[in-house]
């Protein structure tokens, strides 16, 4: 049945080089875990801002900045893990629910885009393949959506709030 | 093959992650998931433990990304984290329950003589690997399955190249012996 000497080990090596099947949800779990908390040096949080994050989708602060003397805004990155999607857009109160204004870029099924948000409460959703509305699985659901489609809420706190 | 194959892309992705683009890290996860997953499964011997080690390594790497001093060699740096993580898991759990996972199709087809032989061979390979001491299994997998150079393995493990070569030689001798024993069962 088996060869001898080095041949048998070489055959074993060929066997071990074959791909191993892994849980397809592993990448999503990694992305959810790194999106959730504050990370030293990356995605730092500021006391005057709040963000929601979770398992298959997330909102994280990318960069803070201030415009003018009164209104502070920060860049928020929205992330959705959707390996099968051909296109994803971010729609919400902040862009008049216009899919053309916040198309998301993909890297291996992880879709992301950054939008500037001033302090306030915003409803939003992901539009997948131009037809499918998805709430952010990691953010609170919006309970006051008048259009009866799934949507989520992100709250950006003001200084001292 | 090595681990520097995609260095330009890695450096750019690491730069984007550091700039706050979390999606770029998804690309790094996708790029290294299968290869590192294979190492973890063979090293630990249990798929669930291996996936947990892999997930933990990716998260740990992200949270320590500012300590990746050469982003072009992100893959090598990530390997180092996983190798250490597998050592911890191996000491804790691999001896306790080392499971042998067979291809589902092979199991279904086991009534055919060829399939039966394949299954026996897969079993023999996994059992032989499990019998190797962890320090032999580690360097054998990195050298022959993951195809790293001795210099790269030395950087990952902190061991000297001559010691690594000796371990690979001993691992091959022991594997030959274990596989021959399986032949006569």
List the helices and strands and how they pair.
The complex is a heterodimer of chains A (161) and B (185).
Chain A: H1 5-16, H2 26-35, E1 57-67, E2 71-81, E3 88-92, E4 105-107, E5 110-117, E6 120-128, E7 132-134, E8 152-156
Antiparallel strand pairs in A: 1-2, 2-5, 3-6, 4-5, 6-7, 6-8
Chain B: H1 7-18, H2 22-44, H3 47-63, H4 74-94, H5 104-108, H6 113-131, H7 134-145, H8 150-157, H9 161-183
Helix pairs in contact in B: 1-2, 2-3, 2-4, 3-4, 4-8, 6-9, 7-9
Give the CATH topology of the domain at 1-99 in chain B: Rna Polymerase Sigma Factor, Chain: A
What is the terminal-to-terminal distance of chain A?
A: 74 Å
Count up the domains of chain A.
1
CATH superfamily of the domain at 1-99 in chain B: RNA polymerase sigma factor, region 2, helix turn helix motif
Strand percentage of chain A:
25-35%
CATH superfamily of chain A: Immunoglobulins
Question: Which residue ranges of chain A are poorly predicted, with pLDDT under 50 across at least 5 consecutive positions?
Answer: 37-55, 64-70
Structural class of chain B: mainly alpha
Summarize the structure in words.
The complex is a heterodimer of chains A (161) and B (185). Chain A has a single domain, classed as Immunoglobulin-like, CATH 2.60.40. Chain A is an alpha+beta fold and 161 residues long. Chain B has a domain of 99 residues: Rna Polymerase Sigma Factor, Chain: A (Orthogonal Bundle), CATH 1.10.1740.10. Chain B contains nine helices and no strands. Chain B is globular and about 60 Å long. At the A-B interface, helix 1, helix 2, strand 1, strand 2 and strand 4 of A face helix 1, helix 2, helix 3, helix 6 and helix 7 of B.
